[in-house]
Amino acid sequence: MNFRVLKDEVYIKRRQVLKSKVHSGVILLLGNHEAPMNYKDNTYRFRQDSTFLYFFGLDVAGLAAIMDCDSGEEIIFGNDLTLDDIVWTGLLPTVKEMAASVGVHKSQAVSTIFDYVSKQQVLKRHIHLLPPYRHDNLLFLHQALNIPVQQIHAQVSLSLIKAVINLRSIKDRLEIEELHQAANITAKMHLAAMTAAKPGMKEYEIVAAVHQEAIKGGGDLSFPIILTVNGETLHNHYHGNTIFDDQMILCDAGAETDLHYAGDMTRTFPVGKSFTQKQKEIYHIVLDAHLHAVSMLKPGVLYKDVYIKASEIIFDGLKQIGITKGNPSEAVQAGAHAMFFQCGLGHMMGLDVHDMEDLGEQYVGYDETIQKSTQFGMKSLRLGKKLEEGFVLTVEPGIYFIPTLMDKWKAEKLFQDFINYDKLEAYKDFSGIRIEEDFVITHDGNKLLGRPLAKSIIEIEEIRRESLGL
Ligand code: GLY
Ligand code: MN
């Protein structure tokens, strides 16, 4: 368990603002519980709920809290350890002590929450809930509110969701420092991958080197490592392939700090000392799209427009090598680029690697002025709305050659005016390339999080040559 918290005044202020935004009623926030892996006492690494961390900072399992928007009262519910617990876990601060460390002066045993909630229900007070994403919290709400499990999601509070997103979307100075730290550890993970890889190794041997850096940074992974020679599969978590010269490794990995702020980067590099000519051509296009997208990042810009521009650059680049044809802007409008770029350009990042995705992408990445597209490709754009100073986000264009998708679109004769299917055949075993970095939006532009890491072909090949002793 991690007991590092920010200064109590940080949490007090955040809760004050939240209560005033939600205005009236009672906010109920649930922390997470230990999650058993295969039997009760053998648990996954504990991960506190990020909204609970943001407002209460306590990285301890089994807590819940209320904030009364009308009276201002705040209570943390949790159970002190019994002697039996202490034998196994060691001594922990009492719930009262933990609560006081984050500026909360009332704490009660967990069992009293049921009484508290039913009293509020009798008084016809609005109980504001966030959507639960863990089944134990879903069951807890069912029990505490006495409503069927199937109806809990209909009871969540849109005003609370919007207030939380409003606050958590704009990162303050302390958070940006943490995110820089997460990006620095993340960059070390990628350097470790680029340095460790040797032809003949298994992917999992490199995964071990990458994971080690996250742990050495004092936290752990912000999401399961994607490290694969089959980079065309976007979230490929299989690590059992042997790696060969002329293949590329796509590594998408990130660390979270001990306060749980995330990093998320991707590099694609050759298993051998250099990219092949064919790989270089595609890499250049992805890098162009990446650099151009970054140059557009500033307050007021629609991230959807950045995505569209990156998609057009990808389409146009592929046109230069004969894979696509026609007008890039028309092709992207029609959705033909999604043959190569099936995912979005990036997402918000903070305490979650896909920040606040549990609260609903339609509220985090979109708003009243812009709706999510339903078109294949663009529908996976997690962030589309106008950028604001203090947003932290990823930029991660890529080109992916997915044989099943190629065969299907070709058989259905889709986008024949935009795609040269005959040329595409030669790319069936190409895999994929992605380049991802993390940025904070500043008052007039953007800033890269963390120290820069090799990204150009020359820089990456230099690391590979050195690592292979060539
Ligand atoms: N880095 C994993 C993702 O953004 O989905
Ligand atoms: Mn990402």
Report what the structure shows:
With about 475 residues, this protein is an alpha+beta fold. The protein folds into 2 domains: about 160 residues, Creatine Amidinohydrolase, Chain A, domain 1, CATH 3.40.350; about 300 residues, Alpha-Beta Complex (Creatine Amidinohydrolase), CATH 3.90.230.10. Helices cover about 40% and strands about 15% of the residues. The chain is built from 17 helices and 17 strands. The chain has a 5-stranded mixed β-sheet with strand order 6-5-4-1-7. A 3-stranded antiparallel β-sheet has the order 9-10-12. A 3-stranded antiparallel β-sheet has the order 13-16-17, covered by helices on one side. Strand 16 and strand 17 form a beta hairpin. It is globular, with a radius of gyration of 24 Å. The structure holds glycine and manganese (II) ion. The site of manganese (II) ion (MN) has 5 residues, from loops.
